[in-house]
Task: structure prediction
Amino acid sequence: MITSESDKNLTVESSPIVEIPKTMNLAGMVNLQIPYKVVCDFSKIPEKYHSLVLQVLTKI
Result:
């Protein structure tokens, strides 16, 4: 599993599941920060594309 506290700190463990914690900021009458996770199963993605997929997921 790969988890990310920020775009700079990654922890790598052996598992095909990737979890990236994110925060959505909603501005309006009240500013809200909503935490969520992006979860992806890398087991069906060819290994040569793992880095590309991870880069895309961290930009979401």
